[in-house]
Amino acid sequence: MREELLEKIIMETVDIPSLPQVAMKVLHLMNDDYSSINELEKIIANDQAFSTRILRIANSPYYGRGRSIDTISTAIILVGFNTMKNLVVAASLKDIHRKFGLFEQKLWEHSLGVSIAAPILAAETKMVVPEEAMVAGLIHDVGKTVLNNSVPDKYSLVIEKVYEEGAAFMEVENEMLGFNHCNVGGLIARKWKIPKNLETVIEYHHAETFPDFEDNNYEALCQIVQIADAMCLGLGIGMERNITPADIGIDRIGLSEKKFDELKEKVQKIYTEQRSKLLE
Ligand SMILES: [Fe+2]
Ligand SMILES: [Fe+2]
Questions:
Q1: Closest ligand to the CA of 238
Q2: Residue 24 in 3-state DSSP?
Q3: Please, are residues 77 and 37 in contact by the beta-carbon 8 Å criterion?
Q4: Cα 30 to ligand 1 centre (Å)
């Protein structure tokens, strides 16, 4: 009941955007056991901008693939069906951003940072597939984007308070709106029917304890994104907060402080390179 009430309040306040048509079609088709790679390729290739975006994401430099992926069918064969669904969602994100001011810039930098840190942590710990971690990092804070688009006046007060008091978004959102970006994100993810692993990360990336998920992998993915998120805040990528490795709980994923610092340095380096490349 509590959840239904929360949904009702959110729906009354927040205008939920829709996922681009092409993404909906592709996700729908991919859930059908009989869909073929050819069919998928046809639909995606029909939308030039969309397919370019997918290939750009699939060719992110940190997976260390020896070859570049230049067609959608190669991408599907190399990354697999499930990861491809994630890439389709990632490629849709750009359409959800409506305006681009200082906060959007910082949020974009933060998401880029987490999308770099998460696969690096995933590769190190072998807890989840790096591509999955990458997309999860990119999309984890989509609830913030939607809140900022939908209730800009209220949300700018939230942002102001977060910056002034150095508080966490979750706390200030709960206090000022009665719900937070994870609640909103979860609702959006269900409405969009995006893959369950991404829905779980969007909804639980700030949770301290986790319910029993239908797939064990989901909790690992949440842990990786939480630690990547904290790492980026610590580095001051996009947004900044003072967090020590002990606060982060890096031992949850079996990392020593020394290893964590090493990976942190790597993330900073790749972030700086990527950021300037993307802004070229
Ligand atoms: Fe968040
Ligand atoms: Fe975040």
A1: 2
A2: helix
A3: yes
A4: 28
Owner of token pair 């710990």:
125
Return the number of other C-beta atoms located less than 10 Å from residue 93's C-beta.
20
Measured in Å, residue 40 CA sits from the centre of ligand 2 at 32
CA 74–ligand 1 middle distance (angstroms):
33
* CA 57/CA 7 separation, integer angstroms: 32
Domain boundaries, the chain: 2-15+99-279
Instruction: Specify the 3-state DSSP secondary structure of 241.
Output: coil
CA distance 160 to 252: 32
C-alpha distances (whole Å) from 239 to each of 46, 78, 108, 164, 233 are: 37, 34, 10, 13, 6
Structure tokens at 204: 């639980």
Out of 91-100, 127-136, 203-212, 235-244, least confident range: 91-100
| Domain 2-15+99-279: assigned CATH number | 1.10.3210.10
Give 66's DSSP letter. Answer: S
Ligand nearest to the CA of 106: 2
pLDDT in tens, 227-258: 999 999 999 999 888 787 778 889 889 999 99
CA of 74 to the centre of ligand 2 (A): 31
Q: How far does the centroid of ligand 1 lie from the alpha carbon of residue 99, in Å?
A: 19
